[in-house]
# Entry
Amino acid sequence: MSIRKKSSRVFFLVAILGALLVAGSIATRGRQGAVALAQGDNWTTAAAQRLGIRLLETRDPSGPPAYPVAPGDLLFFTNVGTSYGAQNTTNAVVVINAKTKKPIVVSDLDPLYTEKFTSHGIGVSPDGKYIYLPSIASINGPEGKIPNSTLVLDARTLKIYQVIASGGPPHHVKAFRDPAGKPRVFVEDWTWNSPAMNGKAFYVLDPTDNNKVVAGMLGAEIHGATYAGFTTPDSKYLYYSVPPPHRGELITNIQGWLAKIDMETWQVVQSIPMKRYPLWTVFTKDGKWAWVTHSAEETVLKIQRGTAPRERDKVVAEVPTGPGPYGMRMSIDDKELWVADKGELGPRDGATITIIDTEKNQVKRTLPTNCLRNDHIIISPDGQEMWATCNSSFEIVVLDSKTYDVKVRIPMPNRGDSHGGVFVSYAGSPRGIVAEVVSDINGLHGSALDAYLKGTPWVAPASR
# Structure
């Protein structure tokens, strides 16, 4: 009997020990599994880990198309936000027929990420598959319970597919091709002006591989508080403006600069001295010249680019503009520079566009548009129109690039503030209708860029 009791006691202890070992094993596997999931999932790359970019959410974006498309169509995608006194309360995407100049649909997105959020830019992947909508909780203070994020939408259903966060507020989104010719999208964060603007300089997404992060840079790697970047027509360099941090305190005393970044090595190869508040950069198609807006000086600077080995970029001219210049666009023949007189630093909203003769380096004319706080100018893919987005008059003003006349004013739904835009062309193919980004705030793309570089007119292809 005692032997049985002893055996039972031993068996009981062994059973308890076994149960503890099993429980410990499950808890350990749970912790290891969470770590493995965070480090080895199918989306998070080494670049994403280094930069601190997270995929917060993935959703099913399937469903019927939100709008019709046909071969030969040209659409313009913009956004309506909730800032600058807008009556709009929900951040949204607006799709406009670029031929009729009429809005055809407004997105209806989850209010969790859009109610009282805003966007100061919008992007579309080069193949027209995804829309990237920056969702900013606040640009002047601590964010709320829902973090700043970039919403990735299915461009046809206008439903959320992914939610990506970088830790800071996303600003602009632009399409480009890397030096190998691969389609890419980059998102740039605010990194200056307040403690809440703690984002990355920029991060690069691969839209052909589930929008995985393939590259990017931190502000410290560019050596400053970055603002906006633009790629050269040959896809070799990215030029990034670096104004003083905390512009309200330091802009009167500290100069900025322009970082020239090699897109193969993602290294700064030259820091070009600028004045106090450099913002926007554009290039001529031959790559020999660049122009940069300087809001604090109310001028633009002309740069002669160093294209030969060991040749450095240098500033060669300065031309006055209207109040607080912001975005710019070259005319299709590179003879004119169109500058948005936004009134960036106040105290009044800008309402004009300054046109500069790029050969004589002087103002050619000033266009009154009454487009209040015009920040971005997007050229139509055929070069015949300039679309100006108006933050404070809640509209888009379309101008004839030859006659300088206002062709039409497009009111924004719900009187929302519009920032930026993307032209997308549609063509027929054996695979069905295919889309192609042909112009955005980073310039011309795809077949429109090819035509521009060749000096031939662009015509929307009906088939591809």
